[in-house]
Specification:
The complex is a heterodimer of chains A (144) and B (237). Chain A has helices spanning 6-10, 12-20, 22-43, 49-62, 72-80, 87-90, 102-143. Chain A has 144 residues and is mostly helical. In chain A, 33% of the residues are buried. In chain B, 82% of the residues lie in helices and 0% in strands. The longest helix of chain B has 32 residues, at 91-122. Classes of the chains: A mainly alpha (144), B mainly alpha (237). At the A-B interface, helix 3, helix 4, helix 5, helix 6 and helix 7 of A face helix 1, helix 2, helix 3, helix 4 and helix 5 of B. Chain B: It holds the Pfam family LrgB.
């Protein structure tokens, strides 16, 4: 048990409450996001506020200032239906009628083939270098 | 919006209507996919098509539609924050294997730019359109930044990013069924690098490790491209 400052000890009931309530955890994630957006506005950094918020939450977790149980259920709520948040943006195509012709087919072909190529190259690079590293590790440990 | 019911002139009713259409059709698509399971019925592909049919059938434009549903897209912000949890929970794996991930990210980024350029040229897509296609493998905020830097149109890039996400989430599954990738690291990186948010959402459904790796790779590859793009452009000029 780490010695806790009186200030930290005073937050214990609040922490206990957050661990039990998914709604409060959702509010916590939202608050961290808003903080990230605020920091981006103030500093003028060319980065999305959600990213700053993610770095902030990761720092809180890694430094032990926040327990993962105080945010996990809230985070899961956002991640479970992540796909839904993309749907409205995808509808932008409705206003680009020129894409519903030959040029659209061409663009789709570029996207389809290029995406497949990127996936194959990345997947195979990671998989093969992982196996290679593991083989190296085994060779090093058996020669010892 | 004049063609619709006068009640929908009220901004609140308007928002509730389009949000209900979107969420309702999303839930329907999820059920349909669970029932029949064909890859082309994946909610990521099916939902925009269904919603698109309603938007066009009601003679609403994209501006009409998005003004009522922008809050859903805004939730991508807190969802990005939420990715700190899976990344934190898989920190050991990431710490142990970061050189492998970095290698995959470099290989993937080079492939993305080179294959987009080559395929676009091959099909006779030139100029602004080709430039706008280059950064579509990275997630929206980063991609729009890069697109502007290299002389593309950020709004066009945003549309391509979304299409890439949808296409990637769908073909990622098709590829995984045929290419034997044994490690969750490779499966996650594949989605995170090529299909950003939508791919990461799909990876998260496949497994927690895949989702964490995908989320991390998506964020890092976006950062990497934002930093590298001006340098590459400087070298080319």
């Amino acid at each position: 048990m780490k010695p806790q400052s009186p200030l930290l000890r005073a937050t214990v009931p609040a922490r206990r409450l957050i661990r039990r309530s998914r709604l409060l955890q959702i509010a916590l994630v939202l608050a961290i996001w808003l903080l990230g957006e605020g920091l981006v506005r103030l500093s003028g950094l060319p980065l999305p506020g959600g990213l700053i918020g993610m770095a902030l939450l990761l720092w809180l977790l890694l430094s032990g200032r926040l327990s993962v149980f105080s945010a996990r259920r809230g985070a899961d709520w956002f991640l479970a239906d992540l796909l839904l948040f993309f749907v409205p943006a995808a509808l932008a195509v409705v206003d680009h009628r020129e894409f519903f012709g030959l040029i659209g087919v061409k663009i789709l072909l570029v996207i389809l083939l290029s995406t497949a190529a990127v996936m194959l190259v990345t997947g195979l690079t990671v998989e093969l270098s992982l196996r290679w590293r593991q083989a190296l590790g085994r060779a090093a440990s058996s020669s010892r | 919006m004049a063609a619709l019911h006068p009640l929908l002139a009220n901004p609140l009713a308007h928002g509730v209507f389009w949000s209900a259409v979107t969420i309702g059709l999303y839930l329907l698509a999820k059920r349909v996919y669970r029932r029949w399971g064909y890859w082309w019925l994946m909610p990521m592909a099916l939902t925009p098509v269904l919603v698109g049919v309603v938007v066009v059938a009601l003679h609403a434009g994209y501006g009409d539609y998005i003004s009522g549903t922008r809050w859903l897209v805004l939730l991508l912000g807190p969802a990005t924050v939420a990715f700190a949890i899976p990344i934190y929970e898989h920190r050991q794996l990431i710490r142990a294997q970061w050189p492998v991930l970095l290698l995959g990210m470099i290989a993937g980024s080079v492939t993305a730019v080179a294959s987009s350029w080559a395929l676009a040229s091959l099909l006779g897509l030139n100029g602004v359109l080709r430039l706008s296609l280059l950064p579509r493998s990275i997630s929206t905020p980063f991609a729009m930044e890069v697109s502007g830097d290299i002389g593309g149109v950020p709004e066009l890039t945003a549309v391509f990013v979304i299409v890439t996400g949808v296409v990637g989430a769908v073909i990622g599954d098709v590829l995984l069924a045929r290419v034997p990738l044994r490690s969750a690291l490779a499966r996650g990186a594949l989605f995170g690098i090529a299909a950003h948010g939508a791919g990461t959402a799909r990876a998260h459904q496949i497994g927690a490790t895949e989702g964490a790796v995908s989320g991390l790779v998506m964020v890092l590859v976006g950062l990497m491209n934002v930093l590298v793009a001006p340098l590459v452009m400087g070298l080319l000029q």
